[in-house]
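FAQ: What does the model actually see?

It sees only this:
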Amino acid sequence: MLLAFLDSAGIPLPAGADALLIAIAVTHPSRAWLAASLATTGSLLGFLVLYWLARKGGERYLDKHTTSGRGQRLRTWFQRYGLATVFVPTLSPVPLPTKVFVLCAGALRVPVVHFTVTVLAARLLRFFGLAYLGVRLGEDSHHWIKANALWVTAAALGLVLAAALLLRRFTREKNASS
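And it is asked to produce this:
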């Protein structure tokens, strides 16, 4: 829980919580689901800390850190794709920029309930999926993740794309009927 909290709150620990969760699932399968629950809780709380810091600092803080280069591109992505930019990297085992999108969500005042549901959905899928792999595949879990990380990320992107297309269609139909 602590590793997941620290990583999500902004202290980079690449794959620390993931590796520990898999190790617990492999060595103590009966504790895998508890470990996944604790990792999810810690991660959600860490992201909420980062979200609230950005929300308190407001757009001025975001402007300071995303006015040029890569930061500006990531901010533009967030403004275009919204919480999908939080969901995909939060779900994916491949390291993707997450913190900037969390900062955008807070600074741009995305409703905390929407942010929480997005992070919770992604982290539940990720951590319970890792626990499942640890229990089912044992020591081979790390190899499976490395071999299939891009496919998992592609599947997450596909889900987000499908949801975005459905949302766009729903919005167009709603605007057409108004």
